[in-house]
Amino acid sequence: MSLTIAEAPVERAPLFPRKKKGITPRSIAILVFLAICAAFFCVPLYVIVTTSFKTMDQIRQGDIFSLPLPLTFDAWWNAWDSACSGIRCDGLKVGFWNSMAILFPSLALSLALSSVTGYALALWNVKWANAFLFILFMCAFVPFQIIMIPLIILSSGLKVYGTVWGIAIVHAVLSMPILTLIFRNYYKGIPHEIMSAAMMDSGSFWRIFVEIILPMSANILIVVLILQITSIWNDFLIGLTFGGLGTQPMSVVLANVVITTTGEAAYNENMAAALLTAIPPLLIYFVLGRFFVQGITAGAIKG
Q1: Which has the minimum average pLDDT: 3-12, 16-25, 33-42, 280-289?
Q2: How buried is residue 101: exposed, middle or buried, by Cβ count under 10 Å (0-12/13-18/19+)?
Q3: pLDDT for 211-222, tens place per residue?
Q4: Looking at the chain, which terminus has fewer C-beta neighbours within 10 angstroms, N or C?
């Protein structure tokens, strides 16, 4: 009986082997540059965070890079509950609830107006659509300071100046050009056959928008939500100009807390107040960040 042994296939070396990439001066330069950029943002953030947990006795020693010893949350509580903004010592909580009251109507108005306008310009034969789109494109680059006084006059005539709704309307008006362009470019990617089939089924303008377009707009809505939440929450000038004494957003209250001093500057409270103001949009981005990337790659800023 004879046995046949299968020979293992012999691996041949590639004709053009790839060179192993080593550490080159170019890669070292890139890493050094990125490290400097990261340090440019991380070092001040480290100082702000550590200072917010320090006592004033440790801050007076002048070592801004030292760790907080002992670790205390008193500055955070004082910034939230009892920090003085002008003659009022109600803390940042007043500005936080004002910002929340401004945020929701601003989001509702801006998303409703811009999504419907972008939908009409992208999928319906609107007369003078190109001219209107060009005007919106030009308005997106007009500085707010140029139209600030006319907006004050208009909001005063509408009896909404100094109210939460007045700030929300201004946010919606100012965001409409860029958001309309974003929605229009996104809706341009929807197959035209879907619109034709919907029209053949006697679909009206609003029925097609609510039943077909909106369910397909999850990615772009998340992109716009993140952009608008960040813009509205971090806004200072609109809230300062159009908000009354009782409707100032958190950023305005933060500025008043920092410039209001009684005896000595409480640097730990100021740092804690700055972090409290920055936390809400950061949380939104961390929660919805991956959806933001999906919306961008799906064509949100394309076209």
Answers
A1: 3-12
A2: middle
A3: 888 888 888 888
A4: N
In a domain, 204, yes or no: yes
Residues 115 and 243 grouped into a single domain: yes
Check whether 174 has a pLDDT greater than 60.
yes
Phi, psi of 237 (to 5 degrees): -70, -45
User: With 60 as the cut, is the pLDDT of residue 5 above it?
Assistant: no
One-letter amino acid of 171:
H
Integer-rounded Cα Rg, in Å, for the chain is: 28
How far from the centroid of its chain's Cα atoms is residue 109's Cα? 17
pLDDT category of residue 296 using cuts at 50, 70 and 90: low
Residues 36 and 128 in one domain: no
Question: Is 171 inside a domain boundary?
Answer: yes
Please state the rounded mean pLDDT for residues 143-163: 89
Q: How far apart are CA 14 and CA 30, in angstroms?
A: 31
Name the amino acid, one letter, at 275.
Answer: L
Residues 113/172, Cβ–Cβ less than 8 Å: yes
Please tell me the distance from the alpha carbon of residue 116 to that of residue 135, in angstroms, as a whole number.
Answer: 17
**Token pair 């809505």 in the structure block, residue:** 221
